[in-house]
Amino acid sequence: MSELVLKLDGIAKLFGDFRALDGVHMEIERGSIHAILGENGAGKTTLMNILFGLYQPEEGEISLNGKVTKIPSPRIAMEMGIGMIHQHFMLVDTLTVAENVALGLPDQGAKLDLGRIVKRLAELSEEYQFDIDPHEEVWKLPIGMRQRVEILKVLFRDADIIILDEPTSVLAPNEISNFLDGMARLRAAGKTVIFITHKLDEVEAIADNVTIMQHGKVSAEVRVAESDAREMARLMVGRDIVHDVVDRGDQKPGDIVLKASGLRARDNRGIEALKGVSLEIRAGEVLGIAGVDGNGQAELSEVITGLLDPEAGTITVDGEDITHKSVYARRHTHHVSYVPEDRHHTGLVLDFSIAQNSMLRDFRIPPFSRKGVINTSKVREKAKDWVDRYDVRMRNIDQHVRFLSGGNQQKLIFAREVECDPRVLVVMQPCKGLDVGAIEAVQRTVMAERANCKAVLYISTELEHIMTVADRIAVMCAGEITGILTPDEVTDERIGALMGGIKEEGVA
User: Fold this and answer.
1) Contact, 431 vs 442, CB < 8 A?
2) Best label site of 104, 257, 322, 366, fewest CB within 10 Å?
3) For residue 21, how far is the Cα from the chain centroid?
4) Cα(469)–Cα(244) distance, integer angstroms
């Protein structure tokens, strides 16, 4: 066995009466990539937050380089050579990339040398193929680029142990390949990487060892060379997972429900993000939108749901023009639901309870309220029903959603947006941050909406997820649709060309 750089022995963590971690034992080899797998709520992130000094354990001890130690804060963790890239961004939007990296650096004060920081960031950006301008303000960057900034912050500090919490969840497929290559280079340089992910193909591609967690405990330890993705999925959820086989039945799409024609719109930087996009979705049909992140998919979802006003073009639902109608009218008159990509800023109010978040979409109407008065008992009744049926793992419905795992937050949003019986369901990266079992549940929910004759717009950068549920796949590049295929027509060469901007004949 290789030398151990880190050992966790009997780690326990309580939140009130809830035991989030229960006697966790884990050993990490120096210079290895160690993956941590587990369903949402299994305790993975909580465990890493303890290692990074954000939480303190009630029981157990941590040994670093063979010596028992305490990690009272993130600053001490960084001084010990431990860096963490969080699943949710820890950035100041109004500052530049370089200024964000400078935050918290020791011995800066009046001697802050941004020039040196900019130079080093440019070197790292080139080395890891991140293509980031150190002078760019963070708020102007798309989500995938912001994740890269988080990665650069840790690389800049030259940590020996690097913790990555779902770091590829916002990266496009071509970016993930480059990112994994970068992790291999870190390992070759003697770094130790702890890698939390739900993506089993990434584990197979890059990890040396895997710890699998269930309900706050370690349930299995696996050497990747001696296992495979199917076995790891079974160990993770306790049963075989097959989410590439969905029974579509013999259902035929009905009349056109959602139609968009010639949509043009600009993003928050004033750059044209949609350049004449046209599409239509029929009742009982799932239209997938594929493409590299940042090619207009987010703006398309926002224009259709009313969050972004188009400069040109029209949108109809069941033949009625909704192009300039309010978000409220779209939701309650035309029955358009939306599962957003950014659950923290768009999907939830983090300091509201689970019950309060459950009613956010429809709090003005029955059964949640009557004549402006909230029906608290009905809100709680609905919330209890939804968390049970959508397997939202929590202490109770009065718990703030801030303290749910990312996947459980997403499941709560999904329940709220599906249970209102929409006519059109727009989902943006619906499986981001979900484990394999939850992905399977989401996909079956989407297919149930299809069976109920809903029109579903399914936007994802993960082609395999789109292939599972979509009847047709529209590919976007640089704000345009470059081609529309059926799943049977998809090949690596064809989809790659469309994602690269090569239009097929007949596409406007």
Assistant:
1) yes
2) 366
3) 23
4) 9
pLDDT of residue 169: 63
Q: Tell me the CA end-to-end span of the chain in Å, nearest whole number.
A: 60
What is d(CA 227, CA 137) in angstroms, rounded to the nearest whole number? 44
Sorted by sequence, the CB contacts under 8 Å of residue 186 that are 6+ apart come out as 162, 193
Instruction: Give backbone dihedrals phi and psi of 45, rounded to 5 degrees, phi first.
Output: -70, -40
pLDDT score at 507: 64
More reliable by pLDDT, 158 or 94: 94
> Token digits for 363?
């709090």
Contacts of 98 (CB under 8 A, 6+ apart): 114, 117, 118, 121, 134, 135
**Alpha helix stretches (DSSP H) within 56-157:** 74-79, 97-102, 114-127, 143-156
Alpha helices per DSSP H over 52-96: 74-79
Nearest-angstrom CA–CA distance, 490 and 1: 44
pLDDT at 243 over 50: no
Residue type, 481: I
Residue 24 or residue 231, greater confidence:
24
| β-bridge partners, 458 | 288, 427
Confidence of residue 472 (pLDDT cuts 50, 70, 90): very high
Rounding to the nearest 10 degrees, give the CA dihedral for residues 337, 342, 347, 349. -170
- Bond preceding residue 167 cis, omega within 30 of 0: no
Neighbours of 400 (CB within 10 A): 16
Q: Which of 239, 190, 213, 208 is nearest to 28 (CA)?
A: 208
Under DSSP, is residue 254 helix (H, G, I), strand (E, B) or coil?
Answer: coil
Q: Which of 392, 384, 342 is nearest to 359 (CA)?
A: 384
If DSSP states are collapsed to H, E and C, what string results for 349-395?
A: CCCCEHHHHHCCCCCCCCCCEECCEECHHHHHHHHHHHHHHCCCCCC
- Judged by DSSP in three states, 464 sits in helix
Q: How far apart are CA 63 and CA 319, in angstroms?
A: 65
Q: Identify which of 479, 462, 169 has the alpha carbon closest to the alpha carbon of residue 343.
A: 169
In what helix (H) or strand (E) does residue 257 lie, and over which residues does it extend? strand 256-266
CA dihedral 438, 443, 446, 452 (to 10 degrees): -110
Which of 357, 363, 345, 261 has its CA nearest to residue 303? 261
Nearest CA-CA partner of 309 in 256, 268, 362: 268
Q: What angle do CA 105, 171, 270 make, to 5 degrees?
A: 85
Tokens in use for 450?
A: 């299809």
Chain mean position to CA 398:
24
* Tokens read off for 147: 């994740």
- Encode 253-284: b = buried (16+ Cβ within 10 Å), e = exposed: beebbbbbbebbbbbeeeeebbeebbbebbbb
